[in-house]
Amino acid sequence: MAARVRAPAVAGSFYPATSSLLASQVDQWLEQASACPPPSPAALIVPHAGYMYSGPVAASAYACLRALKGRVRHVLLLGPCHFVLLNGLAHPDAEALRTPLGDVPVDGTLRARAEATRHVTASDLAHRKEHSLEVQLPFLQRALGDFEVLPLVVGSAPPEEVAEVLDTLWTRDVLPIISSDLSHYLPYELARRVDRETADHILQLEGPLEDDRACGAAAINGLLLVAKRRGLNVQLLDLRSSGDTAGDKSEVVGYGAFAFYPRA
């Protein structure tokens, strides 16, 4: 029986559909990103817009993973569910996720542990058109090489529920990555102020964030709870908007990249 593979939904629109062009673009951004001093991050928050808008911001976080290539084998992806009403969290009923760079295996062990929390179910519908997790995969493929992933879209879920899932799955060999943009469709200067306030809350591990501050607020709020319990520090790697990357400043979307580290 052929493996069930989730086909890419936004290749050719959010990012290049040609493998050579996609790899070249991602590699260029990773090379241009500022160097990340050790230690390697324990978790990340990254944006998920089209690459022309948020690609350079995402690269500032993924550049921190290059030292982990060949060492990180398990990635936990959490992001918002944009197209389907969903209670709780959901994984796709698939054995692999396809991108122009190849297939990424779904981590069956993590999936079983996630389902055991009773907060996570299977939903191909919730994943079929969703871009928030898909756009992270090419960056991970270029930064890490071979790895397995558990992609979870987060619907209506309180912070404690998301935190329970994270606490269950986030062991030393698992890298959690939260996918979220920040403010949406505000004038440029107002967006800068609002996103700076949001960034300050994240840096202080202060939740909960409201949905109008971050479309992935449900996932971020769960991460903030767990990070606070574990005594993690947060570093802001980049904070920009589509007004900085694409030019139009009348209505912008905010993007931030954050890395979480064990306290020294």
Automatic annotation (TrEMBL):
InterPro entries on file: MEMO1_fam (IPR002737)
Organism classification: Bacteria, Pseudomonadati, Myxococcota, Myxococcia, Myxococcales
CDD domains: MEMO_like (cd07361)
GO terms, molecular function: dioxygenase activity
Protein origin, superkingdom: Bacteria
Key words of the record: Dioxygenase, Oxidoreductase
Family designation: Belongs to the MEMO1 family.
Protein name: MEMO1 family protein Q664_09565
The keyword Lyase is assigned to this record: no
HAMAP family attached to this UniProt entry: MEMO1
Entries under Pfam families matching the protein: Memo (PF01875)
